[in-house]
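Hey all, quick one. A colleague (J.T.) asked me to put the thymidine-5'-diphosphate job into the tracker so the inputs and the structure tokens live in one place instead of scattered across chat threads. No bug as far as I know, just bookkeeping. Sequence used:
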Amino acid sequence: MAIFVTGGAGFIGSQFVRDWVRLHPDQPLINFDKLTYAGNLDNLAEVAASASYRFVRGDICDAEAVAAAMPDGCDAVVHFAAESHVDRSILSAAEFVTTNVLGTQVMLDVARAKGVKRFLHISTDEVGGSIEPELWFAEDSPLAPSSPYAASKAAAEHLVRAAAHTFGMDAVITRTSNNYGPYQFPEKLIPLALANALENRPIPVYGDGMQVRDWIHVADNCAALRKVIESGKPGETYHIGGLHPVPNLELLRRLLAVLGKSDSLLTHVKDRLGHDRRYAVDCSKIQRELGWHPTISLDEGLRATVAWYSDNDAWVRRARSGEYRQYYERVYGA
Ligand code: NAD
Ligand code: TYD
């Protein structure tokens, strides 16, 4: 199997690439990534020298660059590349539309021209918008995105479904809940809280902190993605969740307890504009149809994540200082 990954230098993409190369050392994998602020080749140090792995720096909006990098007839495209942070999309949405919408269409066009066998589009539970208490977001629920980020991801999904319907492409969509784990850029809640707590700095809690997210360890998510690549049905959408819905304040208290730090670091700040109150993804379909289940409990995952961030303060320092951005120039030239 030859596989073409976009956004493999980011948080989830790099976990997927590390796992895939370890599990399938004989299968060629190309990682195509623009290396925006969120792309960090430090995340891929352990596979960089593997014979089956190749990194290509490029922009998914550049059809020629994608076509030059993608082999004819490759078995699967796994499309992670995106602008992924809600707060940034509130400050400035244009880049989200360019990368997440236009970039996805470019990927679909090139994949079709190259005769790619399966296109896996990585989406998010946020396309369903805020879910009322007691209700669940299922694969066939209407989309109701409320942040510019979620709206751009919903638009991308529509383009994927349109390509499947119009051209008969074998396209599959996954929508995952909030991921956490090693190598997550310290702008998202868990790594930001950990990085601040380790320096005894305040942790910003937006609004009342009672917003609910369903946390999944990134390794469980990547196991689900492999299942979908191997045995998902063409044209289907699969929800992937951690089965660990908790309000932000409770999550942060549990994190601080593992760290042995005081709750007094928690500092309420102004709420995020249009903040979605609750995400609640129904992931019974993938469990029923593909036999996937999350295996890492929230307590276990938080302990492992705390240990990773505590042991990898150099990674956090390089991520925060922007030092990691010189890696490409140093290793690959300008
Ligand atoms: P990330 O922000 O950590 O990484 C994104 C990666 O995409 C980076 O390596 C970046 O350099 C690359 N990229 C951005 N623009 C590009 C472009 N124009 N061309 C090529 N590469 C580009 O994101 P993540 O958290 O790893 O998320 C990966 C995917 O999963 C995204 O599609 C996101 O919407 C989705 N998702 C994330 C979560 C989560 O909790 N993090 C949950 C559900 C879905
Ligand atoms: P985030 O990690 O940005 O993911 P998303 O917005 O995609 O769910 O945020 C997770 C939750 O934590 C969300 O409800 C916003 C909240 N939050 C804070 O309270 N403080 C913070 O500093 C951040 C980054 C997020």
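Adding what we noticed when we looked at it: The two ends are 32 Å apart (CA to CA). The first strand starts at residue 3 and ends at 6.
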